[in-house]
Amino acid sequence: MENHKQALIEEKKHLEGELSSVGRRNPEVPGDWEATPAPIDIMMADPNEVAGGVEEFEGRAAVEVELENRLLEVTDALARIEAGTYGMCSVCGNPIEDDRLGANPAAITCKAHMNG
Ligand SMILES: [Zn+2]
């Protein structure tokens, strides 16, 4: 279990690093992140540039959402370690297989329930 905890802590650090390159912490919601808007100088921008900026922002927002979802899973798994409920399937309550946790230490279901 210690090695899973270590893996989760490492992944959390990594995700926060990635997130800070595409987004910023939402100052109003603790633990929430938002994509940083593309810096567009409206006075200078021609329509093509604005479109490119919007596209770039949308790409970054999609990446940001993905990273944030994963960060939530990882943070949640760490909270379950603290609570002593880590490694239990959320569907059947049985222990999650160790090799499954090795592949995804934030897993919340056993192999039998991983797709449900
Ligand atoms: Zn299960």
Can you characterise this structure?
It contains 3 helices and 2 strands. With 116 residues, the chain is mainly alpha-helical. The protein has one domain (2-86). A two-stranded antiparallel ribbon has the order 1-2. Helix 1 (2-22) packs antiparallel against helix 2 (47-83). The longest helix is centred in the middle third of the chain and has 37 residues, at 47-83. The mean pLDDT is 88. It binds zinc ion. Zinc ion binds at residues 89, 91-92, 94, 109-110, 112-113. Zinc ion is lined by residues 89, 91-92, 94, 109-110, 112-113.
Structure keywords:
116 residues; mainly alpha; two-stranded antiparallel sheet; 2 strands; binds zinc ion
Topology:
Blueprint: H1 2-22, E1 23-25, E2 33-35, H2 47-83, H3 98-103
Antiparallel strand pairs: 1-2
Helix pairs in contact: 1-2
Residues 89, 91-92, 94, 109-110, 112-113 line the site of zinc ion.
The side-by-side strand order for the widest beta sheet comes to 1-2
Percentage of residues assigned to helices: 55-70%
Tally the helices: what do you get?
Answer: 3
| Uncertain parts | none
Q: Tell how many strands the DSSP assignment holds.
A: 2
What small-molecule ligands were found? zinc ion
Name the shape in a single word: elongated
Average pLDDT confidence is 88
Report the sheet-strand fraction. 5-15%
> Which oligomeric state applies?
single chain
Q: Which structural class matches the secondary elements? A: mainly alpha
